[in-house]
């Protein structure tokens, strides 16, 4: 038997408490019993998103919530500024193109965060830009973009759309306080659920924009959803079992305390980066790292995909691959959601062993010891 350890950026591990909640007997979604569960989950999401407004629950992936943001906020030909620093920046670009918008692309070197002055320059060059689209945490490159600072540029200007799929629940991204206009996430990351739910919150000025937007929409009609979800369900059949799990996961986070949740993610990230550095490995995003996942270049001459296959098939430790130009060169270790100190230790110990297996001269325990030094901070 090989025990499995899931340390990918999503799907992420599911706590027993959440799994048990999802195994509750199926109930009808147009009943007072479900309305109660749905409303409690909605209230928990407001706290998570840092908003007094509605957070809508969609039966979709996080990409569905991204598409919903575009479909509800724009009209054909609208000019938008897309920050493209990875696979998910590309996704904003692809959605904008699919809906007939006019995207202005800001390409960012993979592993780097966008510079605020670059965004400001583009806004000055294109005063007709209707929106800025960005990732808070670019999962493919493990970069954290300066969302709070960019939000200051868009105040009273273009709408600010933020993909928070690996940020919401990992670090504070308060929609109301920062002035974000659309914030989205998905269920299979920090919310400790299976894939299948997308979430979106809009600012009041974004809601006003939905009344003038002319792009076609049906399933992702947010005004229709807002009206129905205020009554305790949704316009269409919701993912009932996942919403039972959502209520449980939000309750777990609230009991831990959101400040502690964010501190735990930050600490695991620092421990992972310290371990990689102690092992003599280069970080993918050394200057602006995300607390959701750490990207690591493997030693030259090693095929990262073969190392990952070995970790998965022979050791039961599932990490994530580098994407596109990073394929075969880098790996990503996630520390998001239902993870703690000893998940980090497991990942680092397994990586040391796998690298030794493939010929890298890395002493056992060097990375583990560096991680332990950081993780000890949480122990009394």
Q: Biggest sheet, strands in spatial order? A: 2-10-9-8-5-3-4
The CATH level-2 architecture of the largest domain is identified as: 3-Layer(aba) Sandwich
The gyration radius over C-alpha positions equals 21 Å
- CATH fold descriptor of the largest domain: Aspartate Aminotransferase, domain 2
Identify the CATH homologous superfamily of the largest domain.
Answer: Type I PLP-dependent aspartate aminotransferase-like (Major domain)
- Beta strand %: 15-25%
Broad structural category: alpha/beta
The biggest beta sheet is recorded as: 7 strands, mixed
- Basic shape: globular
CATH class of the largest domain: Alpha Beta
Helix content: 40-55%
Helix and strand run: EHHEHEHEHEEEHEHEEHHHHEEHEEEHH
Number of domains: 2
Chain-averaged pLDDT: 97
Regions with little confidence, pLDDT below 50 for 5+ residues: none
Number of strands: 15
Count, helices = 14
Termini separation (Å)?
Answer: 35 Å
Structure commentary:
There is one protein chain. This protein has helices at residues 16-22, 32-49, 62-73, 87-98, 116-125, 147-154, 175-178, 204-210, 222-229, 240-256, 258-278, 304-315, 341-357, 366-375; strands spanning 5-6, 55-58, 79-84, 102-107, 131-135, 137-138, 143-144, 159-163, 182-186, 198-202, 282-283, 293-297, 317-318, 320-321, 330-334. With 380 residues, it is α/β, with parallel strands linked by helices. It folds into two domains: 16-255, Type I PLP-dependent aspartate aminotransferase-like (Major domain) (Aspartate Aminotransferase, domain 2, 3-Layer(aba) Sandwich), CATH 3.40.640; 257-378, Aspartate Aminotransferase, domain 1 (Alpha-Beta Complex). A hairpin with a 4-residue loop joins strand 6 and strand 7. The radius of gyration is 21 Å and the shape is globular. The model has no long low-confidence stretch (mean pLDDT 97).
